[in-house]
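To close the chapter, one final illustration. This time we ask the reader to focus less on the individual chains and more on the assembly as a whole: which components sit near each other, and how the overall shape emerges from the parts.
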Amino acid sequence: MDRGSSMSKATQAGEGRGGLSAQEFQAKLKTYRLNESEYGLICDLLGRDPKGIEWALFSALWSEHCSYKSSKVHLKGLFNTSKRVLQSFGENAGVVDLGEGERVAFKIESHNHPSYIEPYQGAATGVGGILRDIFTMGARPIALADYLCFGRPTAPRMTQIVDGVVRGIGGYGNSVGVPTITGQTEFHESYDGNVLVNAMAVGLFRKDDKVFLSKAKGVGNWVVYVGAKTGRDGVHGASMASESFGADSAAKRPTIQIGDPFFEKLLIESCLEVMKQDLVVAIQDMGAAGLTSSSFEMASKGGVGFKLHLDQVPLRDSSMTPEDILLSESQERMLLVCEPGQFKALSEVFHRWNLDAVKIGEVTEKKTVELHWHGELLTEIDPDLLVENAPQYKRPYKQLGPQNRVSSRQAWVDGLKSAQGAKKIDGLLTSLLRDVRGTSRKFIYRQYDCRVGAATARGTSDSVGVVRLKDSNRALGVVLGCRPHVMRLDPRVGGLDAVAYPAFELALKGFEALAVTDCLNFGNPEKENVMSEFVASLDGMNSICAALEAPIISGNVSFYNETMGKNITSTPSTGLVGLRESLDHLPESFFTEEGQAIYVLKQPGFVSGGYAQEIATGTQNAIGELDGRVVGDFIRGARQLSKAPQVRATRAIGKFGLAYALSRMCLEGVGAVIDHEGLKLIRTDVDQAALFEEHFYEAIFVVDGKDTTAFEDYFTAVRQVAPIAELHRIGRTGGTSLVIGSLLESSNKDLKTAYTSGWGENFESLA
Amino acid sequence: MSQKIGVLRFPGTNCDRDVFEAVEGAVPSTGKKPEWLWHADRFDAKAYSALYLPGGFSYGDYLRSGALAARSPAMQSVREAAERGVPVLGICNGFQILCEAGLLPGALVKNAGLRFVDDWVDLKLANANPTFARAAAEGSAAKLPVAHGDGRFVIAEDGLKRLQDNGQVWWTYEQSPNGSVADIAGVMNEKKNVAALMPHPERALYAWMGGTDGSGFFDV
Amino acid sequence: MKIGVKVMPRKEVLDTQGRAVESTLRQNGKQLNACQVGRYVVLDLPGEDEAKAMASAKDMAEFVLHNPLIETYELERL
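The assembled structure is written out below.
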């Protein structure tokens, strides 16, 4: 059961408190989503019962969403630093040093619940919010990426949700002028009633740009409100995001938050300008729990007090109460601290961009936040009580051992055979290419501007998004991770894979993964199995982050992704940022020329029946173990090999295994022939299941056909880094079909037709 | 002849820096430096040898794309410059603004597919422009990216006939992404000093961008 | 029979278009208190029974023409 750190004044059930009858007291607890032990803790901290506005403050800042009360004890153990890290958790976003004066800020964040309720605005405001986290720090946003999990296309409202979310992301990102350069989209029944919309943003600091923090400083400095007026949007949104969906989720709607990318664009330009002129002492955006969280956090972090006049806050609706104002989640607003003497210069910049800057308070010495309303002092409270002293729960969990292991691959050999029935193997391949889980996402990506900024070198049609760093002529790679089907196989392996697979994809294009941001989407943490998966997946992530020296430096936790008692697949999505010394010889991801040699680079030791087995039989099995340190070395080796001058194209062999990866490479017209002898080098049993099983990890390397000896020599050096790595030549490019030994032959045309028509077959009205 | 090139900036313009840098990149051959022109201020129409109206979402595309920007003070100066014969290039939202300002014929409305389209398109040069991409021969091809929601060019039948008769159709799509009448991707005014297109030449300057066909648009 | 459907943003919901249009009008010296931007849909419906036409227009407005989370609508006989 839930347990606060103190139970001393917790009430007996049925007893009233704070001048309220038992019934009124219970109703109030429910409205403010606090439980009795939390109430007891509040009384302990205050030395009295909370009154008036304080209920709302504790409700918002002690919500799961703001306080991380179920996850904090586990997040403390995350691998979160390296010599490149300039800013880790605790600020709006993490910051990493790229050298040569360049730094990047990045973060991924969830907007799941709002996107299910109102898909367009939910997704749009998700993008807006994550962008504010980035430019709040002084970085200019240069890239966006979206991790989306939808339910089955046949689930109620799903077509409309997919359409709305995609339009919302495009509508905001395109207008505000930040390119969406990569993404990942998953479909599974566990998301039927609870979709995931995770948006990542990356921002760049150039040589002379300063990093700005939210830590308030300087007694006597002014607290300034900038941006849109405050409306009733999303009042109580933060505590709503901390609850499961019930049947009445449609009725439980605060006023929908409307995003205005145009306004945000003005805010970006004006904020970056006042920062460039060094007119800002501290700054934070008003996100979840709006003015409450921004002001209390800024004061708490700075170890100072704030005196705030809520009646000075610009309002869209004059009938709003102090509680509405404190909890409003109206978009495109910032809170900043500036020196009084610089307010004039600061407000001139905002006026030039058609925005208003309004003084709403001052920084004070006594470490309390005073809230004033037309001359009345509503409360005076130590910000630490709300920000630092939220209860921390050690929710019950079990240590999970290896899951779904078997001793032989017969489990999926039989499974695939029975599912396949009379169908030939090329039929199985094209059915996966047509399946919503394997088909082209071009419908989605075509709606996102992927080149605004004129720095995109690789966009959404590739496995890794790449933007050029203008000043140093280097390349920044961005990729998302977490494969829900691997999470369903084994949460520890899934967590490890959520970092390892995208790091591997980066390595295959020559990028070194520098750091990770994560968005931990889970079900109800009060359920033991959910918490056990949470702990296991963090353990997996941690092991690989440490091995790669790629720390987790930002992110968020989204619990209660549960509808009518059904939890989503535990989905710790990730975003990785990688660096490459130049844009030269960036490997392609397709077969583009005839007569080139095809190799497979592999790490033996862990194989699963994979997504194909799960789709065919509803279960997945695996053989072996995955060790973070070994994987880390293998990824380093892969990166080194991808830099061999003979390499033309690379691609990770991921979901659906070898045949699917090869067919994706055939989509540009040039085919491939894989020899039976070559297959035998990478598969112990050369049968049909061998083409679809998933080996952790493998990649295809396409190498200049005239220079294979040099390439193989190069590999010898790679073995020094990754002793476990194997390299096998399995075939060559050429022709207009994909031929795999005597097992499969399919024309590129058929593969392409399957891959490009699948979307329309699943979403008729969205084709 | 002036040695300055003006780049217009409206609230919500988001390709402004991209175009500015593209013009800067051509300085070694043109010797002409770019300069910002702010929407709220009028400017000296005689002071610039060319003007660029970059793409983006001026005023969020609210009401109608380009409508609000077209009524800004800076656009009055653009009009004066255009009347004096100064070359003016509109890209994407810049095209929409020039149409809304009446400096180019026709209008740009929602794509036929009702969705934003981001893609590479193949273009054909219908009639050459004396300033922008002047090196391209009529009938020649170019490959450029598009990224727009309101890119469908519409014009009344007699207007279209006048455009075609006067050689004012600049570029056409090989395969229209937006349902434009007569596959029109770019047009010019009668004097041919005001020209605009929906595709983004500033996003196709170097091989790493995926193509280089845009460079001739900034070499003025 | 023609029925007009006037769809407007809800008062408590931020009207992004209205805000942008209002600010441009003001900057150009136009006097106004406020500005809202909505949508107008004209339905040409079969039959001559006004009550029936209104009912089916209401049905269509509820079905797709407006989003009750962010908009309200009004019907008028044209």
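Chain C has one domain: 2-77. The mean pLDDT of chain C is 91. With these observations in hand, you are ready for the problems at the end of the chapter.
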